[in-house]
Structure to design on (195 residues):
C-alpha cells in the first residue's frame, strides 16, 4: 500500500464517498492536494519533466484533478492521480519541442549555491546532464519504473498500485531498465575520448 506524506495509507475511497454528483462527500480537493502534492511532484519528475517545470506541471495536474474529481469513481486514488500526471507530462513534453524551436538561447549553467564551489557545481551539473541523457534513451515505461524505484524510492508494490499494473510487470520493467541503464553507461565515452 502507498503511504502518503501525512502518514495515512492510500486506501481506495468508497465509490459512494467519491460521488459528488450524487451529493455524497468524497475526498476534498484540499485534502488530496495536501496529502498527494509531494507524490505527484515526484511522479512528474520521474516522467521526465525538467526541474524548472516540475512545480508548474504539478499545479497543472491539480487543476485537472479539480475539474475531474466529480467523475472519479473512488477506486485507486493514486492511480487516478498518476494517470492525470502521466497525460499532463506527456502533453507538455510533446509541445516542448515547438517552444524550443523559437528559443535558440542556451541557459547559463547554474551557479553554485552558498558553501559549494564553482567546480563542484559544474561537475554536479555535468553528472546530472549525463544521467538525464541516459534516461532519455530508455523507453518511457522502463525509464519511469526505473526512476520511481531507484531514484524516488517507491517499492514495487507502490509502483504497481499507482500505475495500475501487476507487480510482476513492474519487476520485469525494472529488470530490463537496469540492463538498459548498464548498457547505456557502458556506451558513454571515457575521459580519454574512447568508448
Amino acid at each position: 500500500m502507498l503511504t502518503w506524506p501525512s502518514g495515512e495509507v492510500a486506501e481506495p475511497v468508497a465509490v459512494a464517498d467519491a460521488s459528488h454528483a450524487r451529493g455524497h462527500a468524497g475526498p476534498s480537493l484540499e485534502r488530496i492536494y495536501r496529502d498527494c502534492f509531494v507524490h505527484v511532484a515526484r511522479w512528474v519528475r520521474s516522467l521526465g519533466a525538467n526541474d524548472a517545470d516540475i512545480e508548474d506541471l504539478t499545479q497543472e495536474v491539480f487543476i485537472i484533478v479539480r475539474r475531474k474529481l466529480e467523475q472519479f469513481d473512488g477506486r485507486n486514488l493514486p492511480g487516478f492521480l498518476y494517470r492525470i500526471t502521466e497525460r499532463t507530462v506527456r502533453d507538455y513534453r510533446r509541445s516542448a519541442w515547438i517552444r524550443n524551436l523559437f528559443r535558440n538561447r542556451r541557459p547559463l549553467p547554474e551557479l553554485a549555491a552558498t558553501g559549494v564551489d564553482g567546480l563542484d557545481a559544474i561537475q554536479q551539473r555535468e553528472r546530472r546532464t549525463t544521467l538525464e541523457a541516459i534516461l532519455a534513451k530508455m523507453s518511457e515505461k522502463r525509464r519511469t519504473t526505473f526512476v520511481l524505484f531507484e531514484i524516488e524510492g517507491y517499492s514495487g508494490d507502490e509502483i504497481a498500485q499507482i500505475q495500475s499494473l501487476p507487480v510482476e510487470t513492474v519487476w520485469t520493467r525494472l529488470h530490463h531498465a537496469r540492463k538498459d541503464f548498464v548498457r547505456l553507461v557502458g556506451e558513454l565515452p571515457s575521459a580519454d575520448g574512447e568508448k
User: Anything to note?
Assistant: The first helix runs from residue 15 to 18. Residues 1-107 form a domain with the Rna Polymerase Sigma Factor; Chain: A fold (CATH 1.10.1740.10). The CA atoms of residues 32 and 182 lie 37 Å apart. The radius of gyration is 19 Å.
